[in-house]
# Entry
Amino acid sequence: MANTRIIARLDVKAPNLIKGVHLEGLRKLGAPQEFALRYYNEGIDEIIYIDAVASLYQRNSIIDLVTSTAENVFIPITAGGGIRSVDDVREMLRAGADKVAVNTEATRRPELIGEIAQAFGSQCMVLSIQAKRRSGGDGWEAYCDQGREHTGMDVVEWARRGQDLGAGEILLTSVDQEGTCRGFDIELLRAVCNAVTIPVIASGGMGAVSHMTDAIVEGGVQAVAIAHMLHYKKLSLAEIRAGATAAGIAVRHP
# Structure
């Protein structure tokens, strides 16, 4: 049985690490690469950088950040935000990223998923899905631009289609739960995990070790992305790993 990956998610509005609630009300926390280096030294499995304003401003400003991080951090780095073409991916990989996360442009032009997978392999192509529960509770709609823009797409159908197009992994963010520390949307995780066979990363809602174990055991995910609890030092990676091990979940112990 493969280890469950513990991932640090760092949302960036260059040059600062930021954190909000429901992807809004963003607070500046400091230099992202310093946080990434700390998490690496503490044994995090992977880093995810998301440029929170790249799609809004039609640019990508984290190339330099990825470059500087990759000089000191020797674990997989996923970079997302503003990826619109195979050339953008090539530039990000040259900077030191191992994978790219694509959301907005994939919802506008789904064939981009296949273009990236064909050029660099499916393992490089992470489909980022920002999910909001529909009013009345009838499923979830996929959003883009940091949860601001409707796509009209059903999250579960989009996840399935993304896999078919060549995505090797899904970063699934519950906008409703993000930043609340009230736990992951287990129903959402389960629905997507049941629809695809590729790994799913749970993001949005981690507030206790039990939330992570619920996401894995009940939700079926293969990885958990954590932001608030790490950035504000409310949980250490040692505590997270110990809690997972106590729950019978296999994690890497550096």
